[in-house]
Design goal:
Elements lengths: L1 E2 L6 E2 L29 H16 L4 H18 L13 H15 L5 E5 L7 H8 L6 E6 L2 H13 L4 E5 L5 H4 L6 E5 L4 H13 L3 E6 L3 H8 L3 E2 L3 E4 L6 E5 L3 E2 L2
Parallel strand pairs: 3-4, 3-6, 4-5, 6-7
Antiparallel strand pairs: 1-2, 7-10, 8-11, 9-10
Length: 254
C-alpha cells in the first residue's frame, strides 16, 4: 500500500520518527477537565496553539473569525457536555481545527459535504466555516446524540455557516440528506469497514469519501478489504501520525 505525496510514493508501513513531518511536539500541559474548560489560564496556551495551527492550515480572516466563535462556544459547552477529550483542550486548534481544515485541500471543488457522526463538530462545523459565502455550499452534519446535535445547531448559528444538522442514527443518513453530495467524511467514528458501509450509498451517487484515521490505518484497510473492493489513496496528516483515507468508489464483496 502506498501513500500519495509530493515526494513520490512512500511505503505505508513507515511511521514518522520523532520530530519528523510538519507536526510539532506537543508540550506538556496540566491535566484539564470539563469544569476547567473556560479557565483563563488556558487562554494563552490556546492562543499559541492557534498560531501553530494556522501555519499548518491557513484560512481567510473571515473564516478565522468564525472559527474563533466556534472555539469560544465549544469551550463554554465543554464545561457541561463532553464534546472533546479534556486532555486535548490545550491543543484544540492543532489537534482538531487544523486536522479538519486539511480536508479542504483534498477536495477543493467540493461544496456539498456530509459529515457522519459529527460529535463536537470535527470536521463538519470546521468545513461549514470554510464554506460560508460559497454559493450553493451545504454541510450535512449527522449526529445521533441529542445534546451534541443541539450544540452543532448552535455552532452553525453563531458562526453563520451553511450547515444542516440531522439528529439521526448514522446509518439513516441517506434518507435524510437531500440533494447531491460531493464529499462524505468521518472522524473518530467507527472502524473503516463500517464507515464504508455508512458512506457507500452516498458514494454510489458520486460522492468522494475522506476518512480521518489513526496510526492503525494499515490494519483497518486490511480488514476493510475482506468486505469491500476498494482502491484507497492515503494522505499523511499534517497534524500528527494519522492518515486520511480517500475513496472514490466501494463495491461490497460477494
Amino acid at each position: 500500500m502506498k501513500q500519495r505525496g509530493s515526494g513520490g510514493d512512500k511505503p505505508l508501513s513507515r511511521r514518522p520518527g520523532a520530530g519528523e513531518g510538519i507536526g510539532r511536539p506537543v508540550p506538556a500541559h496540566p491535566k484539564i477537565d470539563k469544569a476547567s474548560a473556560n479557565d483563563q489560564s488556558l487562554d494563552a496556551i490556546i492562543a499559541a496553539d492557534k498560531k501553530a495551527a494556522l501555519k499548518l492550515a491557513p484560512v481567510s480572516h473571515e473564516t478565522e473569525a468564525r472559527l474563533d466563535r466556534y472555539i469560544a462556544l465549544l469551550r463554554e459547552w465543554q464545561a457541561k457536555t463532553n464534546l472533546v477529550a479534556p486532555s486535548t483542550l490545550p491543543n484544540l486548534w492543532t489537534r482538531h481545527i487544523a486536522d479538519s481544515l486539511q480536508l479542504v485541500d483534498l477536495a477543493p471543488q467540493a461544496k456539498r459535504w456530509a459529515d457522519l457522526g459529527s460529535g463536537g463538530g470535527f470536521p463538519g462545523v470546521v468545513l461549514a466555516c470554510t464554506m460560508a459565502g460559497t454559493p450553493g455550499a451545504t454541510v450535512h452534519l449527522v449526529e445521533r446524540i441529542a445534546k451534541k446535535a443541539a450544540f452543532l445547531r448552535e455552532a452553525i448559528r453563531v458562526t453563520t455557516s451553511p450547515g444542516v444538522v440531522h439528529l439521526a442514527e448514522i446509518g439513516d443518513n441517506v434518507d435524510r440528506i437531500t440533494g447531491p453530495v460531493d464529499c462524505v467524511t468521518a472522524r473518530a467514528l467507527a472502524p473503516l469497514h463500517q464507515l464504508i458501509g455508512f458512506a457507500e450509498p452516498l458514494m454510489r451517487q458520486g460522492a468522494k469519501a475522506l476518512f480521518l484515521k489513526g496510526q492503525d490505518v494499515e490494519a483497518e484497510l486490511t480488514e476493510a478489504a475482506k468486505y469491500w473492493n476498494i482502491k484507497p489513496q492515503l494522505h499523511q496528516s499534517r497534524t500528527g501520525d494519522g492518515w486520511i483515507v480517500e475513496l472514490n468508489a466501494a463495491e461490497r464483496r460477494a
